[in-house]
UniProtKB/TrEMBL annotation:
Keywords: Cell inner membrane, Cell membrane, Membrane, Phosphate transport, Transmembrane, Transmembrane helix, Transport. Belongs to the binding-protein-dependent transport system permease family. CysTW subfamily. It comes from the Bacteria. The lineage of its organism: Bacteria, Pseudomonadati, Pseudomonadota, Alphaproteobacteria, Sphingomonadales. It is a multi-pass membrane protein. Residues 229-446 form the ABC transmembrane type-1 domain. It is found in: Cell inner membrane; Cell membrane. The keyword Cell inner membrane applies. The keyword NAD does not apply. It comes from Sphingomonas agrestis. This is Phosphate transport system permease protein. InterPro entries: MetI-like (IPR000515), MetI-like_sf (IPR035906), Phosphate_PstC (IPR011864), PstC_N (IPR022182).
Length: 458
């Protein structure tokens, strides 16, 4: 059975359970002899949860283990005896047979894979119907168990609230475990990289040239300092020079000077910048901003200026993160107690003096937190630097020269044709781990600043 159809069927059974339990609770309520502890809808919610949740949990677990069962069933077929012994080739043929089994009318390129299509389709159908049957039985069993507990004295509200709390806890754990999984996967591959390249050579080396690696000493060509500098220069210097003034000034205007009618349409318009796909910013940087920056460099005397410059990528990146700075600054300034602003104005200070002497200092923790979050967003940006920045790893203070970032190099390293176990490929995971740790620390600092700020004014 199709997975979507199965989920839809389980949801339908949950709706039926909710309606049935609600109707039974209503009959108890109309009797008048006994007072219901919980509302009829809460009884229905309790039965619906017992109908849907066990079945969906089983479906999730079955979808995780059924591919392995299908693979074992296919390998037991006589046609599987023709599969090569090499694991990579065998898995490739099995994957091709699986793809053809899913697509109606498709044919396999390899004759061996074509012979495995029918066994694969049969095994998928068998285990699919088996899982669907067990899931439906669990739904009926859960509904029957919950329905027998529907009575006037049953505390359905308490049980339903506990169920919702468990669901929220699971959602939180999924987010935490996902982050932990990303970190551990990066850490594992990074440890393999550091077994071949000393960590000191990687973190403190000043020469980055992964195209030419000395097999005897790969650390000589994999010094990441130029990448860290390019990331900091583009994302934390040039981009912040653009984002902080414009973001802060727009927040001040929207909170202190703009009429309510202007604020209603101007603030959403400004925040729309955060919803623009980064590839659009990349095209804008590569086709519009970069040529303009190159012409500007030529007018300053740089005859051989390149269109791939740190300034072009940094300018567009700064525009992209203006909403991050503006939104946090807006909220921080608006959260400053009105009494502080009114007291300053009552003492004879002008609006500009009140803003500079009272509001900004009071809102500074929130503004700083917004800047830190914007920096973490900027240094993790990929598409803009891929399309507008260069791949040359330079340590320079000249914004018109080429520079590269960690994210740009990760893309280049993982899209090459090198072996996965080579230092060149594994260097991408080391760079990713370093970038992950940096952005994590920036977010932790920003959240601590926000927490301190909220405690001061709530």
């Amino acid at each position: 059975m199709n997975g979507f159809a199965l989920v839809f069927l389980i949801a339908g059974l949950g709706l039926i359970g909710w309606l049935t339990a609600r109707a039974r609770a209503n009959r108890f309520d109309r009797g008048g002899a006994k007072r219901l502890h919980s509302l009829p809808g809460q009884h229905g919610m309790y039965v619906a949860m017992w109908t849907v949740l066990p079945a969906l949990l089983f479906v999730a677990g079955w979808n995780a283990i059924s591919p392995g069962l299908v693979k074992e069933a296919v390998l037991e077929h006589p046609a599987a005896a023709q599969l090569p012994t090499f694991a990579f080739e065998r898995n490739a043929l099995l994957a091709e047979a699986k793809r053809v089994a899913h697509e109606e009318g498709a044919t396999a390129f390899d004759p061996v894979a074509e012979q495995l299509v029918a066994p694969t389709r049969a095994a998928q159908s068998r285990y699919g119907w088996m899982g669907a049957g067990v899931a439906i039985l669990l739904a009926f069993a859960g509904a029957a168990f919950a329905f027998t507990r529907v009575r006037p004295s049953f505390q359905a509200r308490t049980q339903a609230e506990r169920g919702v709390m468990v669901l929220l806890l699971i959602a939180s754990l999924i987010a935490i475990l996902t982050t932990l999984g990303i970190f551990l996967s990066l850490l594992w591959e990074s440890l393999r990289f550091f077994q071949q390249v000393p960590i000191t050579d990687f973190l403190f080396g000043t020469h980055w040239s992964p195209q030419v690696i000395d097999a005897a000493d790969p650390g000589k060509s994999l010094g990441a300092v130029p990448l860290f500098w390019g990331t900091f220069f583009i994302g934390a210097v040039i981009a912040m020079i653009v984002a902080i003034p414009f973001g802060l000034m727009s927040a001040i205007y929207l909170t202190q000077y703009a009429a309510p009618r202007v604020r209603r349409w101007m603030k959403p318009t400004l925040e729309m910048l955060a919803g623009v796909p980064t590839v659009v910013y990349g095209y804008f940087a590569a086709l519009t901003v970069a040529p303009a920056v190159r012409d500007l460099a030529v007018s300053f005397g740089y005859t051989y200026a390149s269109s791939e410059s740190a300034l072009a990528a940094g300018l567009v990146m700064g525009v992209m993160i203006i909403p991050f700075v503006s939104s946090m600054a807006d909220d921080s300034i608006a959260a400053v107690p009105t009494a502080m602003r009114d007291g300053s104005l009552a003492m004879g200070a002008t609006t500009s003096e009140t803003i500079s002497k009272v509001l900004i200092p009071a809102a500074l923790p929130g503004v700083v937190a917004g800047v830190l979050l914007a920096v973490s967003r900027a240094i993790g940006e990929t598409m803009i630097v891929v399309m507008a920045a260069s791949g040359a790893a330079n340590i320079t203070l000249n914004p018109f020269e080429s520079a590269t970032t960690v994210t740009k190099q990760i893309v280049d390293l993982l899209t090459g044709e090198s072996e996965f176990d080579s230092p060149k490929t594994l260097a991408a995971f080391a760079l990713g781990l370093t970038l992950f740790v940096i952005t994590l620390l920036l977010n932790i600092v920003a959240l601590r600043v926000v927490k301190k700020y909220r405690e001061a004014y709530e």
